[in-house]
Amino acid sequence: MELYEQLIYKNSRGESITFGIGSVYHVNVSKDVTGISDLKDTIYSTSSMGQHGDTYVGVRIEPRDIVLTGKIKDERKEAQLRLRREALRILNPELEGTLYYIYGDFMQKIGAKVDGTPEFYRSKEAPSQLFDISFKCLDPFWKDEQETREDIASWIGAWIFPTVIDKDDPTSMIFGYREESLIVDVYNPGHVATGMRIKLKALGQLTGPSLLNVNTREFLKLNMTLYAGDVVDIDTSYGKKTVVLTRAGVKSNVFRYIDVDSTFMQLDIGDNVFRYDAESGLDSLDVTLSFNAMYLGV
Per residue in 7-51, pLDDT tens? Predict the structure, then answer.
């Protein structure tokens, strides 16, 4: 069976529409779509009197524009009108949405807003209803469908079925054990550095939990005491930096407890080595890192 590329757009109301060779909204993704793998950037530089050339300062990846051209694969007039109305309802520019790229088992997604409404028109060469659709992706990076999760400190289940309890073998009564490693290598397979979500879970009382990047010596520390059942969720993503404590089911902002020398660390491309610590109660701390790798194209 020959595989074809597909694009699926899903809006914030859960409605979706599929574009591909096998869809009634026929689009040859490999030929009639632009913007899924190409990006524009702006390079910033400075210059001074007497200098030859410029000095590099930085680069900005511009928002992504994805434009597709296709046709309604039904030549009946009433079917074309019905499918056009359906597309206009789903592709509402007032709604947030996500665009999914699928090829076989490979899938990635990107946040997308419909730029204007779809343009429907006819040509003299074919009776089909043709259309052009533009998407604006303000965050230009494609992401994996599922985020990557790394448990730095956690309890590992060790009880299996069927089980045999031997009174002379104390190991037969072990239901779980503490992960002894304080260090983990988090691999970012993406094309650019990305923020991460850090979850600190207290199994008992502890103070001053922290996370250290062994390579860069950057750290993130929370100057507060956590009690059994407390969970702190920290997001280091650009524009989304938050520190939220959940205690007895109640959420509260604890951003003020972040140590002033802390850095909202990013995951560099490739290997990132982290070590967790606490001023007291280290054995009562569970640490989980989650992130979405970001890609320049598919």
Answer: 999 999 999 999 999 999 999 999 999 999 988 999 999 999 988
Integer CA distances (angstroms), 134 to 68, 117, 119, 141, in order: 7, 8, 9, 17
Give the HSE-up count for residue 168: Cα atoms under 13 Å, Cβ half-sphere. Answer: 0
Buried-exposed string 94-106: b where 16+ CB fall within 10 A, e elsewhere? eeebbbbbbeeee
Q: Domain residues of the chain, as ranges?
A: 6-140, 148-295
Assigned CATH for 6-140: 2.40.30.200
The rounded distance, in Å, linking the Cα atoms of 294 and 141 is 5
Is pTM beyond 0.85? Reply is no
The architecture in CATH of the region 148-295 reads Sandwich (2.60)
Which residues are within 8 A (CB) of 49 and not within 5 positions of it... i.e. 6 or more apart? Answer: none
What CA–CA distance (Å, rounded) separates 65 from 88? 19
Neighbour-count burial of 4, counting CB atoms closer than 10 A to its CB (0-12 exposed, 13-18 middle, 19+ buried): middle
**Dist. CA 60–CA 55, nearest whole Å:** 16
Q: How far apart, in whole angstroms, are the C-alpha atoms of residue 40 and residue 113? A: 18
